[in-house]
Amino acid sequence: MGQKKLIKFAAIKEYENVLEYPQGMPGKWASFFEELKKGTVNIEIDELAISLPTQNNSTDATVPAIKPLVLELACGRGEYAVGLGRMFDNQNFVGLDIKGNRIWKGASIANRDGLKHVAFVRTQIDQVTQYFAKDEVSEIWITFPDPQLRLSKAKKRLTHPKFLRLYQQFLKPGGIVHLKTDSPNLYLFTKTVIELYGLTLLTATYDVYGTEFMQSDKWDDRCTIKTYYEGLNIASSNRIHYLQFKLDKELPIELEEKLKDIIAAFEVTETHDSLARNGKQAME
Q: Is 273 in the active site?
């Protein structure tokens, strides 16, 4: 491991806003952010109070309202966790990724700018249910994840029903999922999942920065946040695709074979040109 990575790994171990494989966190995020805001050093997870969303309905005026918790999955350098934190001080934000040297960037910026409502968790995404309680998360952002282009790796896509079922375990009923990607395949795949399982599609565009979408009533200012990987344009698509949908239906395992057959029929080479040749209307 390079010297720079070692320095970053050492740094995040000292950061109060970074938790590595934390045990006993479900239901404690509101308390954690309260301690972070106070400037508490060496926050003890075992001593944190459990604060569940149902407590927002309390008639006790001394019980503070619980801020909505927003999760950025595969956060990389945490541009969305930090960017959203700058936009909304009435919400809490958690970025989750396995790459500690990447998390270091976002965590360092959050510390520098005093964003005490932004934190990070270093862990694998398939372990995400270990860190959040039922109904604890309000929204999920998935920004430029690995599209896992091979059909054989479709189940590793973060919008595959396998993962969506995990999110349902802690996302509020009807909670919203956002996907931002430069991968035409991942966009089409996710849209197919939404349609097959009857999920509520709120927004879909194959060109989030296109004039038509930006001038429409579907435009969301949160889409202006740009990540490091967005700038790289790895897929060479020259377009950024965006989906916003609700996880408001059951996701029967029995439909996965049908999903596999559907995507096998339409998945193409990962470039915008090849997608265009197969009909731009497929994305609209």
A: no
